[in-house]
Structure formats: structure tokens, C-alpha cells
């Protein structure tokens, strides 16, 4: 795979604030095309990673390469290939929607005003309303329309639906996925909600305590992992490297293992694992520097 | 970018423009009337000419009719600070407050270009508004300056170059404080406070030391201590007092002792002092140093502003915001 086929590559990426490391040793290679979910609890370093990706922050260590270009260069060309929707979808509250579009046109190289106007008209968002008077869902839609009108090759969204009600969330994801289906754009978005991801995403990155704990193509990850349920064992299976997590109940032991590593012993049943359980198992693991599990294209 | 900057800052620019415009019209109306008191212009009454009768009458009427305006204007040295702080505070702070910096700096305009355009445009507005305001005020004060000179605090701080420098100083402090505090209103307060805290020491301690003051030393004439020709009233008097025959400066206690001795002896004070070779000295800056002092003080404040703007540029460049 050549460099440009990666939407995003990071190498040893780290960011330290005054209060400590927000992100450490982050090495990723995410394929272009499709939807990538960045999952982790609050404070895991998701926002920091996304800001590093779009060049809003400078890394303390390591490098970030977006679409084959170093983002710290920040030329108009590299900036115009990346769209960003920050958390809480900030807009200039006193601008009208039309003025927000004019802002986009004034500050971009290939801004598609017609596209943005069509999207907003379809959603029934009037152009003469001030952005601050729109509902949260409408503001998110305006911000998304702005980001998409840049015609970016990579669209980065930080917790895009976290502050939206279920209906607005549904509509937002519908528009986003519609844009993906039209083709050409790679979407990287963060979320602390794990369900619904399976339906929407192709690729997964799990971040915990400032470190990447799991990354890979979702189908591959699900195929590689399975749950083994058997009689309760006393042996210290937690230490085995193939065992992601061991849960002991009174009579049974449930192991989440990476495929092929442990032969199915007699009396043990193998089951596929749900994505949410897989993510939660990795989030529960104590953080170790070498714990990152990579799968799929990056392997 | 031009449209964006105008759209984002038009409220401040319009409010300040209106303010300056209103003050300007008031000053223009009052100033025209005050100037009319001086047929041939107030400059003709400046300096020694001011003692002739026509000028003295004009000055008297000026004081009676427009003296209150002059007193009001003494507080106007803060107007440039308000202008600079009002334009500088929201430059970065408002973007940081609202989170829109993430929007602004992820468009195709690189952040350094964005920052350079904003700084240049808003600093230009600051200079233009204060420049207009100061030009008008300088013109308004011409009759008063002819009377009192331009070195007093209510003249020096309001005229010439320094108000523009004060405004740029406030602009720089407000911008830098906004970048660090991430809030507009506290940034405005910091700029205002910083100016007030700087201005006093500068006016009282630094300004007299911009150049070595001149000293005159003359024996007390027998006929009495009528004010000597030089230094004139337009000069900036730093210190005056008495010295003995050797030139050693007398403390005021020593002087009062002499005065008491003269009273005891029943002698005329001037004759008494003259007989003992007491001299009168004056330490002052001559009036023609006005522009030199203006340049030095303006350079001082502009330099501080430049350093602060440099810090802001450095922080934005290093992506520390």
C-alpha cells in the first residue's frame, strides 16, 4: 500500500500538556475510504488525537501524516483537503446561516456553495436565521454542511452526535452517511458511545488513557476474536497473551480470546463476540505501553 | 478575509467610530468658539507675546468659558486605551471562548495568515481612530497650550504621538491577555489595568529622565524675586529652590530658617538673601523638547506592544493555543 492510500498515518505520536500526557506512543495507519470510529471513554485523548490530525495542535513527539502530507506544514492545499467538525459544532453565533456560507467561501479554495445550500434547503434550515438561534441539531447540520462543502478528502468529526437528541442524531448520521455513499470522502469520527457503530463504521480505533489499545477493520476484528465459555478454571489465564479478558462466575469462566491462539478444549464453547463487548473488554484492560492490538490492513 | 474581519468586528468598530465621532463634533463646535477668542490664532499669544493685554483678555475668557472643558478632557487620556483594548481583547479571546478557533483555523487559510490579517486590520483601525481623535484634541487644545505649554499631564498625554502609542499598547496587552486568559472581558480589564499601572510610573519617573534637564542658577536680585525670563512658563519645571553662594542646594528647612532670621532682623527678605549670596535655581526641560519626549515615550509603549504581539504570534505559530 502506498502512502497516499492511507488517510492517516501517525508514528509515535504524543501530546503532553502541562498536567501530563494526553496521548502517548500513538502509531496508526488508517486506510482511505470508509468510516473510521475513534472510541474511548471521556478523557481518553480522543479530542487531542483529532486536533493533532487536523493540525490544530502541534505534537510533542512523533509525526502525523494526513493523505500523504505532513499536517504541521499547514499550507492552503493541505488544509483544504481536511474538513473538521469540532465538538459542540462551533459556529459564529451572530452570523446568519448565509453569512456562515460566505465565511466558508471566503476561507476555502474549492468551496461548493451550491452543495451546502441544497443540503440546508433539504433540511429546511432558513439561510437568513442567525446561527445562534438555531436548534442544536440544526447548528450541527450547518456545521456539517460547511465541512462537506469544502469537498474534503478526509472529514474529521469530534463527538458529532454527543449533544444531539435521538432524532437529530439519526438525521445527522443519515446526512453524514449519505455524503460517504456519494463517495470520495474518508470519515474519522470520535464517540464514547459504542452501540450503533457496527452499522456505520468500517474501521475501529480504541483509545484509553491516552494510548491506542485496539485498532483494525471491524469485520476482521470480529472474526479474530471469540468468546470461550467453559467450566470455571483456577489457572491464571489472564496472563496468557491471547486472552483479552477472563471473567469468572461461580461455575463458568468466560474468556475473550484472539482466534487461533487457544485450541478449543473439550467442554468449552466458542461464540462470536459483539462489537460492544469487544470494545468494553479492551477498555477494561489495564493500560500497558505494549498492549496495542493491531489488526487488518495495518498488521 | 477582509469581509470576515469586517463582519466579525464591525460592532466594535462602529461603536468606537460613533464614540469618536460624537466627541469629535462636540470638540469641533467648542473648539471653534474657543479659537475665535484669539483673532489671528492662538499661536500668536504663545510665549512672551501672551503678556500683552489683548492676549491676556483672551486667556481670561478662555479660562472662564472653556476651562471646564479642559478639566473634563484631562480624563480623556483613557480614550485611546479603551479603543485599543476594545479592539484587541476579542481578537483571539472571542474565538477561544466560543470554540470557533477550531473552525477558523481548519479552513484553507493558514493560521499565520489569518492572524497577520487580523492584527494588521485591527491595529490599523486602532491607529486611525486614535489618530483622528488625537488630531482633533491637539487642535482643540491649541489655545490652552499657548497659555500653559504642552508639558503638563493634561496636555502631553493627550496630544501628538503618545495617545496612538497608548492605544497600540492597550491593543497588544488585550490581544495577548485574550490569548492567555481565553476570555474577552478579563482581557479588556487586564489591558486597562496594565495601562493605569504603567502610566503613573512612566509619567512621574521615566518621563523626566528622557533627557538631562537644564539648570539655571541666578543670584536673587535685590529688587525682589520676580520670575526670571528663562525658563519660560511653557517649559517643564522639574524642581526649583534656593542654593547658597557656593551653589549648594538648600533644603526647605534651611530656607525657612533664613526667612525666620530675616524676619527677626526686620530686614527685607530679598535684600537679606541677596546679601548672603543666596541663589535661586530651576531645573527644567525646555519647551522645544516636546517632540523628542513624545517620540521617546511613543517608542517605549509601541515597543512593549510589539513584544506582546510577538508573544501572541509565537504562541499561535507553535500551536500553543
TrEMBL record, chain A:
<dbReference type="InterPro" id="IPR027417">
    <property type="entry name" value="P-loop_NTPase"/>
</dbReference>
<feature type="domain" description="ABC transporter">
    <location>
        <begin position="8"/>
        <end position="234"/>
    </location>
</feature>
<keyword id="KW-0067">ATP-binding</keyword>
<protein>
    <submittedName>
        <fullName>ABC-2 type transport system ATP-binding protein</fullName>
    </submittedName>
</protein>
<keyword id="KW-0813">Transport</keyword>
<dbReference type="Pfam" id="PF00005">
    <property type="entry name" value="ABC_tran"/>
</dbReference>
<dbReference type="GO" id="GO:0016887">
    <property type="term" value="F:ATP hydrolysis activity"/>
</dbReference>
<dbReference type="InterPro" id="IPR003593">
    <property type="entry name" value="AAA+_ATPase"/>
</dbReference>
<dbReference type="GO" id="GO:0005524">
    <property type="term" value="F:ATP binding"/>
</dbReference>
<dbReference type="InterPro" id="IPR003439">
    <property type="entry name" value="ABC_transporter-like_ATP-bd"/>
</dbReference>
<comment type="similarity">
    <text>Belongs to the ABC transporter superfamily.</text>
</comment>
<keyword id="KW-0547">Nucleotide-binding</keyword>
From TrEMBL, chain B:
<feature type="transmembrane region" description="Helical">
    <location>
        <begin position="72"/>
        <end position="93"/>
    </location>
</feature>
<dbReference type="GO" id="GO:0140359">
    <property type="term" value="F:ABC-type transporter activity"/>
</dbReference>
<feature type="transmembrane region" description="Helical">
    <location>
        <begin position="188"/>
        <end position="210"/>
    </location>
</feature>
<keyword id="KW-1133">Transmembrane helix</keyword>
<protein>
    <submittedName>
        <fullName>ABC-2 family transporter protein</fullName>
    </submittedName>
</protein>
<keyword id="KW-0812">Transmembrane</keyword>
<feature type="transmembrane region" description="Helical">
    <location>
        <begin position="160"/>
        <end position="181"/>
    </location>
</feature>
<dbReference type="Pfam" id="PF12679">
    <property type="entry name" value="ABC2_membrane_2"/>
</dbReference>
<feature type="transmembrane region" description="Helical">
    <location>
        <begin position="114"/>
        <end position="140"/>
    </location>
</feature>
<keyword id="KW-0472">Membrane</keyword>
<dbReference type="GO" id="GO:0005886">
    <property type="term" value="C:plasma membrane"/>
</dbReference>
<feature type="transmembrane region" description="Helical">
    <location>
        <begin position="12"/>
        <end position="30"/>
    </location>
</feature>
<feature type="transmembrane region" description="Helical">
    <location>
        <begin position="291"/>
        <end position="314"/>
    </location>
</feature>
Amino acid at each position: 500500500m502506498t502512502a497516499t492510500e492511507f488517510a492517516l498515518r501517525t508514528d509515535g505520536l504524543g501530546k503532553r500538556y502541562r498536567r501530563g500526557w494526553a496521548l502517548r506512543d500513538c502509531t496508526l495507519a488508517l486506510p482511505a475510504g470508509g468510516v473510521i470510529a475513534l472510541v474511548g471513554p471521556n478523557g481518553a485523548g480522543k479530542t487531542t488525537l483529532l486536533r493533532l490530525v487536523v493540525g490544530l495542535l502541534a505534537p510533542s513527539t512523533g509525526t502525523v501524516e494526513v493523505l500523504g502530507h505532513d499536517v504541521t506544514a499547514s499550507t492552503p492545499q493541505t488544509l483544504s483537503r481536511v474538513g473538521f467538525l469540532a465538538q459542540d459544532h462551533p459556529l459564529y453565533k451572530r452570523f446568519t446561516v448565509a453569512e456562515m456560507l460566505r465565511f466558508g467561501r471566503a476561507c476555502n479554495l474549492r468551496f461548493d456553495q451550491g452543495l451546502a445550500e441544497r443540503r440546508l434547503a433539504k433540511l429546511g434550515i432558513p439561510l437568513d436565521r442567525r446561527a445562534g438561534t438555531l436548534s442544536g441539531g440544526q447548528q450541527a447540520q450547518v456545521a456539517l454542511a460547511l465541512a462537506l462543502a469544502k469537498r474534503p478528502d478526509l472529514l474529521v468529526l469530534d463527538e458529532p452526535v454527543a449533544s444531539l437528541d435521538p432524532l437529530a442524531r439519526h438525521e445527522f448520521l443519515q446526512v453524514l452517511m449519505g455524503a460517504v455513499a456519494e463517495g470520495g470522502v474518508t470519515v474519522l469520527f470520535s464517540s464514547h458511545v459504542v452501540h450503533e457503530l457496527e452499522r456505520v463504521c468500517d474501521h475501529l480505533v480504541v483509545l484509553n488513557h491516552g494510548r491506542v489499545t485496539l485498532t483494525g477493520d471491524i469485520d476482521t476484528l470480529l472474526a479474530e476474536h471469540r468468546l470461550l465459555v467453559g467450566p470455571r478454571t483456577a489457572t491464571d489465564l489472564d496472563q496468557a497473551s491471547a486472552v483479552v479478558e477472563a471473567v469468572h462466575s461461580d461455575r463458568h469462566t468466560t474468556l475473550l480470546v484472539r482466534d487461533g491462539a487457544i485450541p478449543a478444549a473439550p467442554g468449552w464453547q466458542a461464540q462470536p463476540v459483539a462489537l460492544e463487548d469487544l470494545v468494553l473488554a479492551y477498555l477494561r484492560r489495564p493500560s500497558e505501553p505494549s498492549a496495542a492490538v493491531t489488526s487488518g490492513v495495518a498488521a | 478575509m477582509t469581509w470576515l474581519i469586517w463582519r466579525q468586528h464591525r460592532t466594535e468598530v462602529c461603536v468606537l467610530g460613533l464614540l469618536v465621532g460624537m466627541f469629535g463634533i462636540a470638540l469641533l463646535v467648542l473648539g471653534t468658539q474657543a479659537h475665535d477668542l484669539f483673532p489671528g490664532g492662538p499661536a500668536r499669544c504663545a510665549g512672551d507675546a501672551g503678556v500683552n493685554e489683548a492676549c491676556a483678555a483672551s486667556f481670561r475668557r478662555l479660562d472662564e468659558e472653556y476651562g471646564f472643558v479642559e478639566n473634563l478632557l484631562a480624563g480623556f487620556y483613557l480614550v485611546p486605551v479603551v479603543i485599543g483594548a476594545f479592539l484587541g481583547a476579542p481578537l483571539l479571546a472571542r474565538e477561544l471562548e466560543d470554540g470557533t478557533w477550531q473552525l477558523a483555523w481548519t479552513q484553507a487559510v493558514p493560521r499565520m495568515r489569518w492572524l497577520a490579517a487580523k492584527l494588521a486590520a485591527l491595529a490599523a483601525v486602532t491607529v486611525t481612530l486614535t489618530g483622528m481623535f488625537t488630531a482633533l484634541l491637539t487642535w482643540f487644545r491649541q489655545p490652552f497650550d499657548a497659555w500653559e505649554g504642552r508639558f503638563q499631564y493634561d496636555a502631553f498625554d493627550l496630544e501628538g504621538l503618545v495617545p496612538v502609542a497608548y492605544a497600540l499598547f492597550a491593543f497588544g496587552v488585550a490581544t495577548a491577555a485574550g490569548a492567555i486568559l481565553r476570555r474577552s472581558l478579563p482581557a479588556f480589564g487586564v489591558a486597562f489595568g496594565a495601562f493605569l499601572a504603567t502610566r503613573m510610573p512612566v509619567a512621574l519617573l521615566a518621563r523626566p529622565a528622557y533627557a538631562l534637564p537644564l539648570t539655571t542658577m541666578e543670584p536673587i536680585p535685590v529688587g525682589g524675586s520676580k520670575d526670571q525670563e528663562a525658563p519660560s512658563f511653557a517649559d517643564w519645571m522639574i524642581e526649583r529652590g534656593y542654593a547658597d553662594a557656593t551653589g549648594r542646594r538648600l533644603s526647605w528647612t534651611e530656607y525657612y530658617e533664613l526667612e525666620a532670621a530675616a524676619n527677626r532682623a526686620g530686614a527685607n527678605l530679598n535684600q537679606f538673601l541677596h546679601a548672603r549670596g543666596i541663589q535661586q535655581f530651576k531645573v527644567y526641560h525646555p519647551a522645544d523638547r516636546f517632540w523628542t519626549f513624545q517620540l521617546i515615550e511613543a517608542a517605549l509603549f509601541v515597543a512593549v506592544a510589539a513584544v506582546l504581539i510577538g508573544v501572541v504570534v509565537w504562541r499561535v505559530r507553535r500551536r500553543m493555543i
